[in-house]
Specification:
The complex is a heterodimer of chains A (982) and B (415). With 982 residues, chain A is of the alpha+beta class. Chain A is built from 22 helices and 51 strands. Chain A is elongated. Chain B is 29% helix and 26% strand. Chain B has 11 helices and 18 strands. Chain B is globular and about 65 Å long. The two termini of chain B are 36 Å apart. Classes of the chains: A alpha+beta (982), B alpha/beta (415). The interface between A and B is large, with 112 and 113 residues.
Amino acid sequence: MTGTNRIPGGLIDRDKPLGFTFNGRAFQGFAGDTLASALIANGQRLIGRSFKYHRPRGIFTAGPEEPNALVELRTGASQEPNTRATTTELFEGLNARSQNHRGSLKYDIMAVNDLFARFLSAGFYYKTFMWPKSFWERVYEPIIRASAGLGRLSMQADPDHYDKGFLHCDVLIIGAGPAGLQAALSAGRAGVRVILADEDFRMGGRLNAERCEVAGTGGATWAAAAVAELESMGNVRLMTRTTVYGVFDHGIYGALERNTDHLPDAAGAPRQTLWRIYAGRSVLATGATERSVAFGNNDRPGVMLAGAVRAYVNRYGATPGRRVAVFTNNDDGWRTARDLRAHGIEIAAVIDSRTDTAPNPFPEVKTLFGEAVAETCGRGGLREIITTGGKRISADCLAVSGGWTPNLHLTCHLGGKPVWRDDLAAFVPGNALPPGMRVAGAAAGQMTLARCLQEGDAAGRAVAEDLGRAAPAANVPKATDEPAGITALWQVKGARGRCWVDLQNDVTTKDITLSHREGFRSVEHLKRYTTLGMATDQGKTSNLPGLALMAEASGKTIPETGTTTFRPPYVPVAIGAFGAGAKGAGFKPVRLTPSHEWARDRGAVFTEAGQWLRAQWYPQPGETDWRTSANREAQTTRNAVGICDVTTLGKIDIKGRDAAAFLNLVYTNGFAKLPVGKVRYGLMLREDGIVYDDGTTSRLGENHFVMTTTTANAGLVYQRLEFARQCLAAHLDVHLISVTDGWAQFAVAGPESRALLQKIVDAGHDISNAAFPYMACGEMTVCGGIRARLFRISFSGELAYEIAVPARYGDSMIRALIAAGEPFGVAPYGTEALGIMRIEKGHPVAAELTGQTTARMLGMARMVSDKKDCIGNVLSRRPEMTAPGQPRLMGFRPVDRAQMLTAGAHFIARGAEAVTENDQGWMTSVAWSPALGHSVGLGFIARGEDRIGEVVRAWDGLRKTDIEVEIVSAHFVDPEGERLRA
Amino acid sequence: MRRYSVFAIAREALRHHQGWGRAWRAPEPKSRYDVIIVGAGGHGLATAYYLGKNHGIRNVAILEKGWLGGGNTGRNTTIIRSNYLQDPSAALYEKARSLYESLSQELNYNIMFSPRGVMMLAQTEHEVRGYRRTARANALQGVETEFIGPQRVKELCPIMNVSGPRYPVLGALWQPRGGTARHDAVAWGYARACSDMGMDIVQKCEVTGIRTERGRVAGVETTQGAIDCDKLAIAVAGHSGRLADMAGFRLPIESVALQALVSEPIKPCMDVVVMANTVHGYMSQSDKGEMVIGGGTDGFNNYTQRGSFHHIEETVRALIETFPMISRLRMLRQWGGIVDVTGDRSPIITTTPVQNLFMNAGWGTGGFKAIPGSGWAMAELMAKGEPGPLAAAFGLDRFAEGRFIDESVAAGVAH
């Protein structure tokens, strides 16, 4: 189908026709069209249905403020609901569908809502649907929910990917209309680093939409020349299709660049880029948005903002009507009449609500001063208007201008409050602008082209001066200073029928008066009660009229009633863009241990611990479940020797004359007297006295320690240490660095561990029990000269060592250790066997150190030294934390040894009811102990230390089990620690 | 008070809704009240409501510096649940949740409590253990929760990708009677009921000072003049520390920004509330069709009701990981609220060093769900001068005594 409403002229490329479909029907447009302009050119007036009443709606604007013309764009997984036809660039094969109707667009059965509109007043749902009670859940809410929403999600994963980027500039100029272009020219010529961003695909703003003259040439031509000059400057970056959507603290501007939305297919390129722009200064040159006037049935397809009519006619060569009426309260509306006339389009009438205007410039056009449009008629689209004077005028398009509202959104994002200007009948930016921001042009309330150019120039030069550049002399192209008078008109007195304010959410003037009547009078209450301005257009055309109508209802002025304020984003931003780079496995990196490849080749099963993949167990042929493998690994370790990669534990290298004093501050127990060559277990508290982390710290030299932390807390402990070093103990000479990734570390545990290591350690290093006893450490060489650190520490409870080599030798080290262990029957063990052995030994881990545990609860109260201060010391001595009766970490074994314990079970006295009042504690960890041949558990139970031998019940409300358990010591295996000293 | 019903709507519809009155009166403040409550958010209004309803105290003023419900009551993501780990929390939040069940009928105002079920995803083994522990604690506490497997998660929320490449869903803590409510309506409903009991709600009335006499509260200075009172309650989340400062004491509270966002409205695609701790985000779909999304708090203290750029990115990244199909949906609005965070992530409902001055604070990121229970407990505390069983554990003294109600682990996700 060819364009029935196509007219000559405009900035479209008629040599590049583009085919597209709307609701399955094929149409043709041209490169340079938007979907909206192409639909207008094809005479398509009905585009969609409104949210609440399913009223038929057409295209209302030519920009991002569009409330009506929302479509589902593209198909399949790429389907995008609620897409504005007015900002969608046409591309070959574009497929769009109307949304929010049941049945066809033309015959939407949900339009029945409109018949009941009288009952569905603002907030009616707060007053009903309460009886009978059960109906809300079963009947009312499901019905309300079924009618919610506009478009549909594709229900498939987004096939596109997104990018993010960081940009820095001296000045970010937002908007490339006359003010923005001129600001960029003036700043760019002064050598300032400029980014000029515009949401449109063609820079120029209203210059492209108006018939105007700049510097003796057409506005659009001047804009193109300005863009060409800017493109030639090395210090200027031009960004089209880029919306600066928000201002954040520290001079950060969020911007979204649409890279491929104008193409049929992204073809592998990122669809959009989320830019974080760090700008020293900014110039807000975002122009203004036109608004409508409330009169009867002002929502019919065919009613359009007057500036949008000009945009379609001048820029896109598409006329929204063949017989157009203009209704205005300001001088700008007359430009629409002038431009239509120039294009030879019939003007049905110009209706100017003002009585004090100059004489009619177009004598042949029917003009009505002091009148207004009272009502419109036409089923499915405008056919006729009726004025307040009772005149009936037939027209297929009504261009409405209620005045222009500066686009000051970004000035509010950091808390700025707009101020009212009566002469403009609009808010302009207040004084509290985001730091470094200037506002120029229509955004600042300068409503004429000449003033926009002057202000843009002034802003550009001022930025240059701020930055100490020699600003060029004022150089403003000549343009006419056309009149811009306005007499505010918000609603037409004597209007008939419903007068719409928020077209998308179907808020009428009556809803606003009802909101006033019921006391919802502040702007926020008005919004929330009526849903005014809460739709996808964010109230760009409705917020101010809504506020003005509330002011009228209250008999107050607009500034007394409130202000309009805005939150990011300026236009809705695809969620995928915020998540750029995070898709799928890219969400968070995975860390691999030095022995990962070796373990993988050996068939290890991995689990994630603090982002590390650790071997969980190493299945051997014939082993079908993890328990068999883990039990074998634990038993091999207890009876021979086992090896486990413990690289994931955090390692912090601590050096300096005051390193020992620093450790005394961060650990509860003393480190000052730890001899060189010794290791000590340390406990760390939070400021509030709760246990934070534990680990061992080794003294490798007088002023050199190496701390280990738990895997999960490695980064956090390092942060805390840095905080302590910089803020609490700046006077100490101490230096920290995280070396977690720098060293590969392996636990070698079991009675044969020394024999194994003696084969690895180079000759000359004596690691006999006498020379290298329990808790010894030292630097040595292994495997013929490789630098290594050896620590005689044990988590398993066996004779054990941890050996560390530079990470690059980690893979070789595991292979060497296993090879050396062959004669002893060595087995690698994973985290499951580790877990079994630590439960058998009663060592606390994350399940016990929950951030709710005191040292006393762990039976480690005496580790909190009272001879020195440390972080958390004072608060750990608070009365309730030291009172008797606190839970204590104990061991538990089932009275019937055949029964299996479960973690999370609560301890209840025998014969007592399982209720909160009888709760005595809970089981933290359980394992089946291969050493003991039955299930064992650790748990916290009140006064546990005094109750050894007592039998209680472990009640599990999840698994519905209730098992008698005996309270025992938490050290199930080798409680005296003879094995680890062997 | 005019009773709301479908019949009232029908009658009014016939006369163009001319007959509706104010939902709540807008009186000038009197010079004295028995009780003044600072803060006309959910907690302040609910406190007033239960003072009147449960204790017959009706000479009450609720003072609001801005507009009613404009603080965190109108800024949260409306999630209601009670699957807490510690016994005092579970009791308080479950009380609140159970009051929500019939609050619409009680207030004659449809607050749209929608018990569509809340699931907290377990995406690491550590979380599985943690939520199983919570489920066991809940079983003991009488809070209805269960631990469900990934298949059931998928059935309840088909748009979720339970087998994501990075953090597959291993299960979830499921509270079938958790859900959401219309946050503004909760404030409006309580306000209307309070007004109906003769209480005065005064908006745009900022408290600028607290007067005490011999260690006992005497009244407040406000931007609308001085007002005397016998008892004073402070329920001003986000500014609790500042009000306490006016009364001469300090609170163990940090104030941080919590951000939330909503998407454009779409046709219903998600019926349950999903919270994901590991990836750190939560999401539900409102009755209007918007996806309501929240995440964690900013890592620095401030009073500006806005958040940082990067935190929204983190929250959204988290949700795309779990819900890849929302990627093409657009974010419509983002905003921030200031939350009071205590060391143990549990609230403060308490007497204070000033006699007859009571404090309701420290709800952190999850105060909305507690509103009815909090009001109930606070009213009891104010009427009797000492806490009842619900509030007993939440006194300010617990910080000095070292008696924690630590929810930072099990509550986990900042909400």
